[in-house]
Amino acid sequence: MSYQHQDWQGKTIDLPKGKVVCIGQNYLDHIQEMQSKTAPEALFFIKPATALCPLAAEFAIPTQHGAVHNETEIAVLIGKKLSKASEDEVMDAIWGYSLALDLTLRDVQAKLKQLGRPWEIAKGFDGACPLGAFVPAEVIQAPQQLQFSLYVNGEPRQQGDAGLMIRGIRAMLSEMSQWFSLEPGDVVLTGTPAGVGPLTPGDKLQLTMRSDTTVLLDVQTSVSMQSL
């Protein structure tokens, strides 16, 4: 399914479809559940624009490469270019916020890690980033207080609180921009909390983003099988 950035009222956003820049290991509970080795340096990686697909009524996953895991994350849409930006410059460049699934071919990733090889294919395959509609930045006064959740088949799987990020949004975007210019239309994924796990065709998902008690996004979707 073709992708175009949309706002929370269903209107098309006049920004191109760009790359997706991600941070790994940004929540302590996820680091612990994955028994990961950590380093002082941030773990950044990129998904191509072809990974983007709408987080709509349905999205498809490949089933021929082993387990496909959910990783629910706050997504940030870049509205103005950031290059070697200071933290003070970052917030003015944000168009808005949404939720995304950083889909991961976990078996493929594990095998490549064991071989000491890069694992882009486990993260950047076509359709690897289902992305919701964006809430404008001016609506969200305190993005670092956003909370979000994922329910799978009615059962809670992930509960996230942006206040628990190891690197906050402002610091993260500034540090990213020292390495990669963030262009209008690019999307930044801000890390996932604990609760990653396999998805199966037929699963029913509910993703919610809240500010205090106000629900900003409530997306219900289902998983289908990607055509071979």
Verbal overview:
This protein is α+β, with helices and mostly antiparallel strands and 228 residues long. It has one domain (20-225): Fumarylacetoacetase-like, C-terminal domain (Fumarylacetoacetate hydrolase, domain 2, Alpha-Beta Complex). Helix content is 15%, strand content 36%. It has helices at 28-34, 87-90, 106-114, 120-123, 169-179; strands spanning 20-24, 43-47, 52-54, 58-61, 68-70, 72-78, 94-101, 104-105, 129-131, 135-136, 146-152, 155-161, 187-189, 197-198, 204-211, 214-225. The strands form four sheets. Strands 2-1-13-6-7-10 form a six-stranded mixed β-sheet, covered by helices on one side. The protein has a five-stranded mixed β-sheet with strand order 4-16-15-11-12, with no helix packed on it. The longest helix has 11 residues, at 169-179.
Main attributes of the structure:
16 strands, six-stranded mixed sheet, single chain, 228 residues, alpha+beta, Fumarylacetoacetate hydrolase, domain 2, 5 helices, globular, five-stranded mixed sheet
Query: How many β-strand runs?
Result: 16
Helicity range: 10-25%
- Beta-strand percentage? 35-45%
If you consult CATH, what is the topology? Fumarylacetoacetate hydrolase, domain 2
Mean pLDDT comes to 94
CATH superfamily: Fumarylacetoacetase-like, C-terminal domain
Helix-strand category: alpha+beta
The stretches of 5 or more residues where confidence is low (pLDDT under 50) are none
Count of individual domains = 1
Number of helices: 5
What is the level-2 CATH architecture name? Alpha-Beta Complex
Tell me the radius of gyration. Answer: 16 Å
CATH class: Alpha Beta
Measured between the Cα atoms of the first and last residue, the distance is 15 Å
Shape designation: globular
Order of helices and strands: EHEEEEEHEEHHEEEEHEEEE
Strand order of the largest sheet: 2-1-13-6-7-10
Largest sheet: 6 strands, mixed
